[in-house]
Design a protein that fits this description.
six-stranded mixed β-sheet, 14 helices, alpha/beta
Length: 324
């Protein structure tokens, strides 16, 4: 799971390191900073005093103490002053320096809050874009699972043109699906369509098995070659863990979950028909009775192949993300 957005309390994340949106003194404060200090216990404050503060954009590391993590990475985000005072560059430095510290300590899992979006006033949507940009760039070169943690759905206001367009598209096709006559809907859901008569002539089971088409793994690897991608470039663009990719690659009979199959279709920038074919080989199909499918369909039809952008929309709609 290279990058995942989750709703949780960051002090409860069982990861190697959590990131603290600290103030320059590193001596605790409100919001995430205060919650982390309370959960970690007084030993965290004692260690922080020895660090003698931290400059904006930099990061320093301590032990996790009572927290369910090995380390706390403290970083000081910029105070929002309208966006014209280097805030974006400083916020990017917070994420980049925190990730570098995590890598130095051999961390495999790291959880971030949305830095500077509390009392420091950084607009949430802009802060999220900075976080995703820096983290995804880091993950292109490093194997690590990173979480962006928000406490509640209301804490993340994505909005944006794409979200509005997809909401309207869902309303159109999702409602249309359920306005169809029940008998038509039932017939569509019947696997294999109309049944043949028991006595009708047809291929033997042995002949059908011998003539089996390429499976999901074969199609995936063929498309990677056709697109001129490396394996690593593909699974990283798909937001899929390297170990899962290798499981698919090395076991032709392995069938991934639907969201994983869709993630590869997005990473490979497949057409809608190619996506349906890839899904079929994994044993799935796109359906207008599934809102997550509608989101993906809309993005493919409109050439929107940024998996992080798609996952932001899915997150806002309480739908399962692509990848992993």
């Amino acid at each position: 799971m290279p990058l995942e957005m989750v709703r949780n309390d960051i002090v409860k994340m069982p990861v190697d390191a959590i990131v603290n949106a600290a103030n320059a003194s590193l001596l605790g404060g409100g919001g995430v900073d205060g919650a982390i200090h309370r959960a970690a216990g007084p030993q965290l404050m004692e260690e922080c005093r020895k660090l003698q503060g931290c400059a904006t954009g930099e990061a320093k590391l301590t032990r996790g103490y009572r927290l369910p993590c090995r380390y706390v990475i403290h970083t000081v985000g910029p105070i929002w002053q309208g966006g014209g005072h280097g805030e974006r560059a400083l916020l990017k430095a917070c994420y980049r320096n925190s990730l570098e510290l995590a890598r130095e300590k051999g961390c495999e899992t790291v959880a971030f809050p949305l830095i500077s979006t509390g009392a420091y006033g950084y607009p949430k949507a802009q802060a999220l874009q900075v976080a995703i940009e820096v983290i995804t760039r880091f993950l292109l070169e490093n194997e690590m699972t990173v979480y962006i943690v928000v406490f509640s759905k209301d804490a993340l206001e994505l909005g944006g043109k794409l979200f509005g367009e997809i909401k309207a598209y869902i309303d159109d096709v999702y409602v249309e699906e359920y306005l169809r006559r029940p008998e038509e809907s039932l017939r569509r859901r019947m696997p294999g369509g109309p049944r043949r008569d028991e006595g009708a002539a047809g291929s033997s089971l042995e002949a059908m098995l011998n003539g089996a088409e390429e499976g999901f793994a074969q199609m995936l690897l063929r498309k990677i070659d056709e697109k001129g991608l490396t394996d690593a470039a593909c699974y990283k663009r798909a937001n899929v863990d390297r170990r899962l990719f290798n499981k698919i690659k090395n076991n032709p009979e392995y069938r991934p979950g639907k969201q994983t199959a869709l993630a590869f279709a997005i990473a490979l920038e497949l057409s809608l028909e190619e996506t349906k074919e890839m899904l079929m080989k994994a044993g799935f199909a796109l359906s207008h009775s599934n809102k997550a499918d509608i989101v993906v369909e809309y993005c493919i039809m409109n050439g929107r192949y940024d998996i992080m952008e798609i996952n932001q929309v899915l997150f806002q709609l309480d739908l399962p993300p692509l990848g992993y």
